[in-house]
Design goal:
The protein is of the alpha/beta class and 364 residues long. The protein is 34% helix and 17% strand. Helix 1 packs parallel to helix 2 and helix 6 packs parallel to helix 7. The protein is globular and about 65 Å long.
Length: 364
């Protein structure tokens, strides 16, 4: 690898401005590679390492990134790096950095997190894309509340084994008064656990309401929510989302469990009415036919060509096909995930779609 760096440097000199590693090299070679970057390519603006390091080696890699001293850096994508308080502090002072992806919130006390991510006094001046990993919503809240910047994209993965619902509610409320509420176009929130501790006093009807602060993000184009809370979402939540996000292009919801979903195909109708740019829909759905008259004068969506139904029970495949054809005339294929019964029923719908496509194209 070191010989490759020298050879590339001989060819291009310091003209290299972006470096991406897709495959994990031997650890020794990686560390030598990182230590040489600043020497050979001081003008790097994008550094992307698309593979995870063993947790025991992350502090060493963090220090090497620190030592690079890349003042022109604009984009940093690291898989599981960033647990060092020194690295976060260093990144905050880089004048051109616009994107920080897969940066881990250090596992320290909350006041220290607030200080690390404080955006006053010229810290994080150019930041627009933030992708965080945190051990809890409390840590994420401390970071995002302090980092008041007009972000274009925000992503969070919470890795806690035990998530308290109240901490999720507090985190979501930060969007109501955050600077990014008028600018952010992409939001991804992932809680990769199948269960959240709602507490004995939490009414399940309050769960969708907890996500209402997201409706204040008027510029939103892409939303991805992965949480067991999605099991409580129903058609009324989809209707509010459609009204709140008229620029929506992609909506991905994953409830992470086989619990029967409450959202139905009829819940898609407001999305057709209010979100003309929508082209990607992935929603756990209790798929059953609805009265076509519910469509009223709503124009069909001509953008969607594929739908993904995860853990979505289905009633009357023929009727479901008819409703999908009315809503999405250009729908060509389906992807689905579920048990054998679901798979069999969705395959029937898929065959109907394929036959309809052949007929419309004049082929048999």
């Amino acid at each position: 690898m070191c010989q490759s760096i020298r050879y590339t440097c001989a060819l291009f000199g310091d003209a290299i401005t972006a470096v991406t590693l897709y495959n994990e090299p031997p650890i020794g070679s990686l560390f030598v590679f990182l230590s040489m970057l600043g020497q050979f390519w001081p003008n790097i603006r994008a550094l992307h390492l698309n593979f995870p390091l063993p947790r025991s080696l992350i502090p060493v890699a963090d220090q090497l990134i620190l030592d690079l001293n890349l003042h022109l850096l604009e984009s940093l994508k690291l898989d599981r790096l960033g647990g060092s308080t020194h690295l976060v502090s260093h990144l905050s002072k880089l004048p051109h950095i616009k994107e920080m992806s897969k940066v881990e919130v250090p596992d320290v006390d909350l006041p220290q997190i607030r200080q690390l991510f404080n955006a006053t006094n010229g810290r994080f001046p150019a930041l627009r894309v933030l992708n965080l990993t945190a051990t809890s919503y409390e840590h994420a809240t401390a970071a995002i509340c302090s980092l008041q910047r007009r972000l274009d994209s925000f992503s969070l993965i919470v890795s806690s084994e035990n998530t308290i619902f109240a901490s999720l509610v507090t985190f979501l409320q930060t969007f109501l008064h955050h600077q990014c509420s008028s600018s952010v176009t992409t939001v991804t929130l992932s809680e990769p656990r199948e269960r959240i501790d709602f507490g004995e006093s939490t009414d399940s009807r309050c769960v969708p309401i907890a996500f209402a602060p997201l409706f204040s993000l008027k510029q939103l184009r892409r939303i991805c929510l992965e949480s067991s809370c999605i099991t409580a979402f129903d058609d009324s939540w989809l209707a509010e989302a459609a009204t709140a996000w008229p620029n929506l292009e992609s909506i991905v919801l994953d409830q992470l469990s086989s619990h029967p979903p409450k959202m139905t195909l009829a819940g898609y109708i407001p999305l057709l009415k209010h979100c003309p740019r929508l082209h990607q829909i992935t929603i756990p759905t209790f798929a059953k036919p609805f009265d076509p008259q519910l469509l009223e004068k709503n124009s069909p969506n001509m953008e969607v060509e594929n739908l993904f139904f995860a853990r979505s029970p289905i009633v009357d495949p023929s009727g479901v096909h008819e409703c999908l054809a009315l809503m999405f005339p250009n729908l060509r294929s389906l992807d689905f995930l579920g048990d054998a019964a679901m798979f069999k029923s969705w395959m029937i719908v898929q065959r109907m779609l394929s036959n309809s496509s052949k007929e419309s194209n004049g082929t048999f």
